């Protein structure tokens, strides 16, 4: 990744075909293995339907999660392409879905963008009849 001091203003965009159930996640991992942000649209996961889960992993455990108001993602029965963008700002991450600003997620603990070293994309949708498919993962400078 680029010089960590240059992160503010940069973003990561993930474009994927949405699943009909399960979990899609974009994860920013730090140099120590902590997670500075875990962005997780949940279509239908363990009884939770259509909500955006945000969290960090710090000191060996998940922290208090946060959800975002609304769910500007396609409904479970609609097969379409989704664009999920996470923009690093001065003190927070800005999360957009299909170019719609959803929420901000403040930096927690010492997990500022300066320590981000890896971006991960994961899918947990074992029960989905239509699987999530990654189309692109791009950094925007």
UniProtKB/TrEMBL annotation:
**Name the UniProt record assigns to this protein:** Galectin
The lineage's top-level taxon is: Eukaryota
Keywords of the record: Lectin
Source species: Geodia barretti
Query: Known Pfam families for this protein?
Result: Gal-bind_lectin (PF00337)
**A GO term for molecular function:** carbohydrate binding
Cell inner membrane as UniProt keyword: no
Which residue intervals define the domain Galectin in the entry?
1-140
Question: What InterPro entries does the annotation carry?
Answer: ConA-like_dom_sf, Galectin_CRD
